[in-house]
Write a structure and sequence with these properties.
Length: 621
């Protein structure tokens, strides 16, 4: 009982936190509100057939559309969408407002009034003609029907039964499999206004006659679904209960609402506390509005009310309430693309805007350059002319000719004659020392030959061949075969940052020299740099000499297997950098957790821990 008093005390702290107007709410009142059990949404339907959904505590409008042309009698969220009914129409819509199907002018769906979701994509429809119809949502068809004596106005489900109520105030308990009536009760003498089921209790509110006039019954009908017998009614003394909802978090607590916007929490066991004596008021009485519908959020932290002026009232008992703790993310509209960036293009100035400034849009469909097959013609490339010297030395074996490779043809390469008229004749160097500089290779793929003058390399203009701001490394020094891997390490941003921040007192430190080289490349602004300091420190390592990583300029030009050499160099340098504190992992068992080099190259190392009695445990990280 002490716990019930604490829960009842918590229920008395609900306050109005937000108001929101439905779509076309200035013309029509709210006829139905319901919280979505799948997403963090609140749905509201109006007497004009409009449906509006709100998101979160701020009641931001999510979707709004007109589903019908008459009053929406009930809304029912399902895992796939939202169901809505009028007197003659049943509509199934996605949460984004797209219609899936509409059942209209169905003979077995007349005067529809209530819905009940059964799961497995089927729903019960209660009609005031006395029919309870089962509709299959996957096929949009009626599968079965059950007839009753009076019009059905309410449908609810318990753990073991399906409950229905007619317009005369009679309550029926059905077998959910065969829909046969198991028990029936007379809840109210003049009509039924609302009904709800929680746990093993069924609670009703309705109408009665007093002094020859129809009025609201101040007694709530309570029925025990375990024994299928009525319990003593609960009397409401402080308001006239027209609508009610049971609190799922507290099975013995119910919410009753009057037409004037007053609501109160009651205990079915008759427990009276200050919270149950408290009556809350919607902001409707001052303006003459009346309350039309009510619903409770799945977390019981929010209450939603709809009034006759098209306004939804949201109440909560805490500041940062969570309406649906297990809500799935809602589908949000796509972001508006940013406006196009203007690119100044001048045909007379080739350096006005590079092609890289034009953004490339990702397109998963066919491109404009992909011509259809009816406009294309498959043509094979013309075979190159075979050198007469090869034909003269060719020996035929059956139908296959064999000839020795001439010394002027490189391995796995074959020249292909291009049209000499395509392209402008551009010399290999700006000094123009050759009479016929045109080769069979396109200009952008030609190897530039450095022409030395009396002053050496200083007079060669490298900027003539580099229009970017990225600096290159000169190759006229020994062991320049590693320039490509140095550029790869430079463009690894975490590696570059760690080496630029490294500083030590060691005389020949590879990390210090790499950091200095990277600093020169950062400030080069497109000019060439030299890796002399790094190669000088590299030559001092005896391991590099023992592995054959130090070669001269002549050996580099004559060496054929440069791919294996650069692989050995890469492996050796990474092992050396791995031993530098702050860049690599350092010693085993050190305090460094995740190093830059280990994060980039996924090195595996071990941490050694020594426990008592000399037991050593090695954990792989």
């Amino acid at each position: 009982r002490k716990q019930i008093r604490m829960e009842a005390a918590m229920l008395g702290q609900f306050q109005e936190v937000k108001l929101a107007t439905c779509f076309r709410g200035d013309e029509f009142g709210v006829s139905s509100v319901v919280f979505d059990p799948q997403e963090d949404l609140l749905w509201a339907g109006t007497y004009g057939g409009h449906i509006t959904s709100f998101m979160g505590l701020e009641l931001e409008r999510y979707t709004a559309f007109q589903a019908h042309h008459s009053d929406v009698r009930q809304l029912l969220p399902t895992p796939a969408g939202i169901l809505s009914i009028t007197a003659e129409e049943l509509r199934y819509t996605t949460r984004t407002g797209l219609p899936m199907f509409t059942m209209k002018e169905e003979p077995r769906l007349k005067e529809m009034h209530c819905l009940l979701y059964l799961g497995e994509e089927s729903v019960l429809v209660g009609c005031q003609t006395g029919m309870i119809t089962t509709v299959d949502l996957t096929r949009a068809s009626v599968t079965s029907e059950t007839s009753t004596d009076a019009g059905i106005c309410l449908l609810k489900a318990s753990e073991h039964y399906t409950c229905s109520a007619d317009i005369n105030g009679q309550v029926y308990v059905h077998d959910p499999h065969s829909m046969e009536v198991v028990a029936s009760f007379t809840a109210h003498t003049s009509g039924m206004s609302d009904m709800d089921v929680v746990g093993c209790y069924l609670v009703t509110c309705g109408l009665t006659h007093q002094f020859g006039q129809l009025c609201v019954d101040c007694q709530l009908g309570v029925f025990d679904l375990r024994t299928l017998r009525p319990l003593p009614p609960t009397t409401v003394t402080m308001l006239q209960p027209l609508l009610l909802r049971c609190m799922p978090a507290w099975p013995s607590t119910i919410l009753v609402l009057s037409r004037m916007g007053e609501f109160q929490f009651l205990d079915l066991h008759g427990l009276v506390t200050p919270s149950t004596m408290m009556v809350h008021q919607l902001s409707t009485a001052a303006e003459g509005r009346v309350a039309c519908c009510v619903d409770i959020s799945p977390s019981c932290q929010g209450l939603a009310f709809g009034d006759s002026c098209g306004i939804v009232h949201l109440f909560s008992d805490r500041e940062n309430a969570v309406l649906n703790p297990y809500a799935q993310p809602s589908v949000l509209p796509s972001e508006v693309p940013e406006p196009a960036v203007y690119i100044s293009w001048d045909d007379s100035d080739p350096n006005s805007a590079p092609l890289s400034a034009v953004p490339f849009l990702l397109n998963h469909g066919p491109l404009l350059s992909d011509w259809p097959e009816r406009h294309s013609k498959f043509t094979r490339r013309r075979p190159p002319v075979i050198d007469p010297e090869i034909l003269s030395n060719m020996k035929m074996s059956q139908f296959v000719g064999h000839a020795p490779k001439p010394p002027y043809i490189l391995r796995n390469q074959l020249p292909y004659d291009l049209d000499k008229d395509s392209g402008k004749e551009v010399p290999e160097s700006p000094m123009m020392r050759e009479n016929n500089p045109l080769t069979l290779i396109p200009k952008q793929y030609r190897q530039v030959e450095i022409k030395y003058s009396k002053l050496g390399i200083e007079t060669f203009d490298f900027r003539h061949y580099n229009d970017t701001k990225f600096g290159g490394l000169e190759i006229h020094i020994p062991n320049a075969y590693c320039n490509s891997m140095l550029q790869v390490l430079y463009f690894l941003e975490p590696m570059r940052g760690a080496l630029l921040n490294h500083l030590c007192a060691k005389e020949f430190c590879l990390a210090c020299e790499l950091g200095f080289l990277f600093l020169m490349l950062d400030r080069s602004d497109g000019h060439s740099c030299q890796a002399k300091n790094f190669l000088r420190a590299f030559r001092t390592l005896r391991e590099a000499s023992g592995l054959g990583l130090l070669i001269s300029r002549e050996e580099e030009e004559q060496r054929a297997n440069l791919s294996k050499l650069i692989q050995n160099w890469n492996r050796f340098v990474l092992q050396q950098l791995n031993q530098v504190p702050g860049v690599g992992v350092g010693t085993v068992g050190s305090a460094a957790c995740v190093a830059v080099l280990g994060g980039l190259l996924f090195f595996r190392y071990c941490r050694s821990f020594i426990y008592g009695l000399g037991t050593q445990c090695i954990r792989s990280c």
